[in-house]
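Protocol step 4 of 5: obtain the predicted structure for the target chain.
Materials: sequence only (see below). No template structures provided, no constraints applied. The aim of this step is simply to have a reference model before the mutagenesis design in step 5. Sequence pasted as it appears in the construct record:
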Amino acid sequence: MAMKPTGMEMGFLINGKAFDMGRVDFVARAGEIELWEIVNQADMDHPFHVHGTQFQVVEHERDGAVSKPPYLAWKDTVNVARGETVRLLLRQDRPGQRMYHCHILEHEQLGMMGVLDVMA
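Step 4 output (structure tokens):
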């Protein structure tokens, strides 16, 4: 929930911000391997999706307990359970802007989306 001048409204945020197509939220370099940490502080699960690449989930953490996946697999979406942190390795190979977002359409439409700019 977010407070607006008109009162309380439902809003879904990433890093405290609602989606803005005119804003670049992260910049990456093509070919570099990055460790992303997706933290879900909400009271519901959110399937996290990244456009333009696949990633490998390397850890799940909840209430201080860390677990590894049973095997490494290439994914483009991972469920991040409520109260969970998911760590993933990804590499963007193609320069350009792309999206990352919650893969629940209503959450995405309510602002749970961001822009990633991959530089050559």
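Step 4 remarks: The longest helix spans residues 105-109. The radius of gyration is 15 Å.
Proceed to step 5.
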